[in-house]
Amino acid sequence: MKRSTWAMLAAGTAAAAGLLAWAFAPRPVPVELARVAVGGFESAIEEEGRARVRERHVVAAPMAGRLRRIALQEGDTVAADAVVAVIEPQLAPLLDERTTRELRARAAAAAAAVARAATRIEAASVAVAQADNEARRTAQLVDQGFVSPVKADADRLTLLAAQRELQVARDDERIARHELEQARAALGTASAGNAVPSGAGIAVSGTGRGGTGGTGGTGGTGGTSGMGGSGSGSGSGSGSGNGSASGGGAGTGAGGGGSALSAQGRAASAPARPGAAGFEVRSPVAGRVLKVVQASEAVVGLGAPLVEVADLGRLEVVTELLTTDAAAVKPGAEVRIERWGGPGTLDGRVRLVEPAAYTKVSALGVEEQRVEVLIDLQVPAGVAPPPLGDGWRVVARILTRREPRALTVPVSAVFPWPQGAPAWALAGAAPAGPVAPAPAGAGTQPSPASAPPEGLRMGVFTVEGGRARLRPVLVGARNGAAAWVLAGLQEGQTVVVYPPPAVADGVRVKERARAAGG
Predict the structure, then answer these.
(1) Which run of H or of E encompasses 322?
(2) Which residue has the higher pLDDT, 285 or 202?
(3) pLDDT reported for residue 356
(4) Are 417 and 358 a contacting pair, CB within 8 Å?
(5) Integer Cα distance of 129 and 125 in angstroms
(6) What is the rounded average pLDDT of the residues 276-294?
(7) Predicted pLDDT at 444
(8) FRET label pair with 250: which of 98, 177, 273, 354, CA 20 to 30 Å apart?
(9) What is the dihedral of CA 399, 402, 408, 412, to 10 degrees?
(10) Region label for 166, one of left (φ > 0), alpha (ψ between -120 and 50) or beta (otherwise)
(11) Would you tell me how many other CB atoms lie within 10 Å of the CB of residue 184?
């Protein structure tokens, strides 16, 4: 074979081997790259919350009664001490037939008791007159010496006893009249269908006392009314006597004539109606009506809520945090209120982290321990408060850390130190950031006093000479976008973002081409 043929065969073999070597050679892994930069870093806890008024005033009924219809509506503005509701006395309950008949009988018995008391007054008056006459005659006989002075003393005592008996009779009459008024008041609450007929005669008017009747017996007591007809006699007052005339007119006499049911009795027996005036319930503060609990007219009890009033210019935000997150929140921490429905963000400050937590079941059915955090809105002087309302949804970002100059990388560039890799160690890496561990020698870890928790011992892939290099880093904190690197990187270095599984220490990498407009 000629030498030229051998040369061409060797060249073809070399070319084929080169092509095979190029075809099976590892290609650089396309990755996304980012640079380590120095800038502001913030870590925050983001959670949904709701706006609510700081002071909610529930206007309640200070007494039981009939509430008039409340004209206020949600959103109305009320001034301090303005009338928000009016409460009137309750109407008496309707009476059934049995109760009505019992009350009528009780009223008739009370009227009879008044008449009996009047009769006792008359009898006591006669006894007093008789005792007085007897005492005067005895005194004359004692002066003439016909009767012993002992008899005069006895007659004086008899007169005194008769006077006391008359006083007792008058007191009994007053008691009977009060009992009659009670019975009449109870009967007066009946409805129109239960009204007392005119023949029942239970009204009592006048206070005069009749004199001694002429023909027909004792005169009637003035103002006494009762059941039955009338006798003959003279007396003063109004009303009809109790009894019936017989023979020569014996019986209780009739007074000066009057209807069985006086005007006062008719007024009492009519259905009770509340007057135009009632007890006015006033607003304790100036603000706006949040809720009208009882708008329609109704009978309400003591302490029943009527209206909720609050000042919408004094709002706060309450958010529910996990107890593990709330441990990092301190009073006075800065808060940014986002996605509240208006432009921009609102500023706030944490006022209180409540000391007591509670159990809440999440949407996935997991029991969580949560605690409420109260946030005050910071509205500059002279600026109108935001148009928020009670119970409106917001998103609160509570800042737990802020560093004005921190070494940061995208949070997707850091990852837990992989298993099987050399022991985590910072070898010759210059510390970065305000906090860093003490320099450690090659192949050694930082001292326990300066090493971060295990969760912050992370790693990154840097790009050096077109190859990926696994580097340990100390991460101080992370948020949704960036990680704060304390040590292990320098400003300007290039790191791999979202490292794919094919990337390992020493693997060639190249930057992935970005899509147009990406």
Answers:
(1) strand 315-322
(2) 285
(3) 94
(4) no
(5) 6
(6) 88
(7) 34
(8) 177
(9) -10
(10) alpha
(11) 23
